[in-house]
# Entry
Amino acid sequence: MADIDIKDIIKEENIVYKKSSILLDKVMHYCPGCSHGVTHKLIAEVIEEMGIQDQTIGVSPVGCSVFAYNYLNVDFQEAAHGRAPAVATAIKRLLPDKYVFTYQGDGDLASIGAAEILHACNRGEHIVCIFVNNAIYGMTGGQMAPTTLVGMKTATTPYGRDVDRNGYPMKITELIAQLPGTCYVTRQSVETAAAVRKTKKAIRKAFENQRDKKGTSFIEVVSTCNSGWKVDPVKANKWMEDHMFKFYPLGDLKDSTRDNPADYEQYIKD
Ligand SMILES: Cc1ncc(C[n+]2csc(CCOP(=O)(O)OP(=O)(O)O)c2C)c(N)n1
Ligand SMILES: [Mg+2]
# Structure
């Protein structure tokens, strides 16, 4: 039998998927089933499709995705815990022609960095904020986060989150949607092919909003942390769909442009 060359079988037109050129050839450190890897891939694809690799600057968080700069082939700046939106503000103001995005977990964004994200969104900075909400402090061993559901067991709430002891879960995305500086606020997920496509569209729209100077775009990705939740990836997805989506419903919360500054000037006119 004649030798068969694999290149004759796999012709260019048969290729249905190619890894984005923006994703570096590195093995990710994420646990199998983690939502961070898929979310990175979507950011990479959007940057590649928009042709903005040389113009994009990411701001890395503190948390499991602290090494995002090892996976995405764009310029990156590390920020201290919670401070990514403040760092991104400085970068965008100094380099207004660049595309600047932040990437943060729920502990990073909704706890220690609650002030930074609220004020960046309130100022209407022309940046993209990606918020991966896995309802837990994943990197440090699964402690309760502001977004942990009531009754959810974590390393620091072994009997389940209790409102009297631990407070209510925080819908920070709903708070952000109220702020006049935001133009686009949406909540998505990445556990199915359809959800992945929707999240990619949302990320694309957010980068286009930045190009069009519409204000701050904010994308929450409701996520799993199967290691922190102590279930396998399939069960984690099911748990997220059954519980997280009820409290954090998916969809757009706001889709417009930031408020017109002129509307705010009337109050001191007399
Ligand atoms: C000032 C400061 N406080 C605490 C820590 C420890 N720390 C590292 S990651 C992290 C939590 C990250 O959780 P989250 O932002 O939800 O990201 P995830 O790992 O879940 O993706 C904490 C508290 C730190 N690095 N710096
Ligand atoms: Mg988290």
In short: The beta strands are 56-60, 75-78, 99-105, 128-133, 136-137, 143-144, 182-189, 216-222, 251-255.
